[in-house]
Each structure stands twice: as structure tokens, then as C-alpha cells.
Amino acid sequence: MLQKLEESKKDVEKKVKERTEELNKLNETLEELVKEKTNENIRQLETLQQQSKLASMGEMIGAIAHQWRQPLNEISIAVQNLKYDYEDGLITKEYLDDFIKSTKKVIQFMSDTIDDFRNFYRVDKTQERFSVKEAIQRVLSIQKAQLQNNNIKVTLLGEDFEVVGYKNELQQVILNLINNAKDVLLERNISDAKITIVLKNHTVIVRDNGGGITPEVIDRVFEPYFTTKEQGKGTGMGLYMSKMMIEENMNAKLSVKNTNEGAEFRIDFDE
Predict the structure, then answer these.
(1) How many Å apart are CA 136 and CA 172, to the nearest integer?
(2) With contact defined as beta carbons under 8 Å apart, do 222 and 243 qualify?
(3) Is the pLDDT of residue 21 over 70?
């Protein structure tokens, strides 16, 4: 009897050991799968971020092209006038001083635009306390000419406030929201087109008068690769990445709703 019990005990211990080894192997396999999937998700996210950033850079380069058109025309006209005035014998020291001063001013404006662009895409993963209004004004300074050329009026209202986070990422989000509004206003040929940005109670509101988002798609606008634009005119990544940057890196929430006139995007920061 004792021998049978001993044999039974050994048999149970053997089976427990075998099952334990199987569970350990399964656990190791699961850990490897989780690690592999995590790395795969990280790679996919990095790819999505890069795609979004490249699309954003394309928009910004287009804005700079608009921004430079007027100062380049000013320099071209000034140089042409200099040639004619020289031929007419009108060149004096005072004339040259004024010419140099005005030309330097235009060149400095163009240089500042490049600085804004470089700072906008500076790789900086250090959080800082910054003025939200100043960050938005930086974006508007680059977008101003492009919006004016398309007869779109932009207004920035409300009281400034400060947040702690990544300034460049907030600027990219604001740029995406402005460009989305601009595209809708142009596609729908809205007269008296307007984009209004309001700062209120630690909230940034970006609204337009483009008629709003159709009820069928408003719940999908933050999905990756979702776009209502024609093929080749949108990646469907702008709003998705904007939501990720705001909610994962800025301790805030990005949402959208329709108003009587158009769409309204809200960035609500924790106070």
C-alpha cells in the first residue's frame, strides 16, 4: 500500500513538473510574442508619425512658397528700379542707404520664415512651459500669406495661457487643424471664408464656417488613413496623429463637433 502511494506521489510530482515546464515554455513563448508585437506596433507608430510629419512638412513648404512670393517680388521690383534710376542719374548716397535698408528688411523677413520652419520641426523631446498664444501665432505667421491668397480670414481671440508639454507638437496639431479647415473652405467654395481660433479656460477652439462634417463620418475623423478627400490629396493621418500627440504627449483631449456654421475642434488641457 505504501509502495503504491509512493509511486502515485512520484507520478503526480512528475506530471506537475512536466506541466510546470510546459507552462514555463508557453510563458516564454507568450513573452516573445508580446515583445515581438510591441516592437511591431512601435515600428508601425514610428512609420505613421513619419508619414504625418512628411505630409505636414509638405504643407509648410507650400506655405513658405506663398510667404516668399511677395518679398521676392519686392526685391525684383526694387532691383529693376535701381537699374532705371542709375540710368537716369538719380542714384545718391541717401538713395543707396534707403535701398539697402529696405532690401535688408525684406531679406530678414525671409530669413525669419526659414527660422520658423526649422524651429517648427526641431527634434525636441524635452517638455517645457510655453505660451499657447505665442505658439499659435508662430503657425499663423507662416500660414498667413497662403490663407490671404485664398481669401480666408483667420482670427485669434481670447486670453493667453501656458501649458507644459512639447511646443512643436502643439504647433503641428494647430497646423493640421488650420489646413483641414482651409481645404474644406476651398473645396466647398465658401464665400466670406473664416477660421476662428479661440483661447478660453485652458482650451483651444478651432472653428470654421465650412458647413461642418457629415454625421456619417464625424465619428471616424480620428481614425488612421480615414479621409474624405480625393485620392492623392490626403493621407488620412493628420487628425489621427494630432489626437495621439495631444492626448499622449500633451495631457489634453482633442475632440470635434459641428456648430451652426461648420466644424469645431477643441483641445482641452488639464488645468
Answers:
(1) 10
(2) yes
(3) yes
> CA-CA distances (angstroms) from residue 185 to 40, 64, 260, 267?
38, 20, 15, 21
- With a cut of 80, say whether residue 68 has pLDDT above it: no
User: Looking at 7-151, which runs of residues are DSSP E strands?
Assistant: 128-131
Q: Are 152 and 194 in contact (CB under 8 A)?
A: yes
Instruction: Count how many residues are written for the chain.
Output: 271
Q: Tell me how far apart the alpha carbons of residues 100 and 77 are, in angstroms, rounded to a whole number.
A: 14
79 phi and psi, to 5 degrees? -65, -40
For residue 81, what pLDDT band results from cuts at 50, 70 and 90? confident
Q: For residues 165 and 249, is the Cβ–Cβ distance under 8 A?
A: yes
Which residues, including other chains, have CB under 8 Å from residue 59's CB and lie 6 or more apart? 175, 179
All 3 cell numbers of residue 241? Answer: 496623429
Backbone dihedral angles phi then psi of residue 58, each to the nearest 5 degrees? -60, -45
> Look-up: residue for cell 493621418?
237
**CA nearest 136: which of 160, 104, 152?**
160
Residue 93 CB burial class (10 angstroms; 0-12, 13-18, ≥19)? exposed
Q: Which class is 128-269 in CATH? A: alpha beta
**Is the pTM value of this prediction over 0.85?**
no
Q: How many Cβ atoms from other residues are within 10 Å of residue 204's Cβ?
A: 27
Q: Can you name the residues that pair with 139 across neighbouring β-strands?
A: none
Residue with the bigger pLDDT between 141 and 52: it is 141
Domain positions in the chain are: 62-117, 128-269
**Position 234 pLDDT exceeds 60:** no
